[in-house]
Write a structure and sequence with these properties.
The protein is α+β, with helices and mostly antiparallel strands. Helices cover 22% and strands 25% of the residues. A hairpin with a 3-residue loop joins strand 8 and strand 9.
Length: 264
Amino acid sequence: MRGALALSLGISLGAHVLVAAVLFAPRVPAPASPPDEPAPQLAGETFELPAPDTTDLPLANASPSPENVGTPAPDDGDAPARPPPPVRGKPAPRPSNAGRPSGGRAEPGQADGALGSAGPPALYGAVGERSAADLATAFTRGFPQAASADPVWRTAPLGSAGQADVVLTLDESGHITDTQVLGSPSPALVSAVRRTLALIKGRAFVAKGKVTKLHLVASVSADAVQDGLHGDVFAIGGSFAGDEGNAFFALAIGRRIDVRVRAR
């Protein structure tokens, strides 16, 4: 009985001591939290950052454009900018080699007699020069200018003044290098041909070939006397077209000289 009482007292005493220790034990204060720092304030100039470059990557299954040949190089941000690859299109058509013949030479096809499309014959001499004149035309127009000043026509008999074949040879630059007067011309006609050649010889010409042969037929006829106000020569003219031409001059004394020119 006593033992049980003593045990109960001991347990009760231990419980009170434990409760007193818990209640009266010193409390350790919790560490104080640091004061809140104020939020930083931004001051100064504002600026915008550029947006990052975006590169469109080609699709793996996309077919290349027919105009672009080759694979474009990968875009490297740190490497210097490279020019885009050249675009290869259809080649431009080449100009035709058929042009005007070079000076002093005929076109190969026409010179060799090759068959081809019909066209004007190739020229020889100063081809392409603006100052160059047709040889037959220049001779026909120059004849009355040069011959009308020759006094021999004042006394030439009426009627035929003879016929002559004038052979003219050109070099590649279009200048006359050789002249021949053939046939049975009168002295007046021979003198007129020489005066005409002296008048035109310094020019450059073009012709249908290196050698040009002109057949002349001259005649002297009576003409009405004018009023004498136009000097010794009151009419003059000359023209050449195709392979034929005519020239004339009329003197105030009543004479008219006509020359027919035909290319042979």
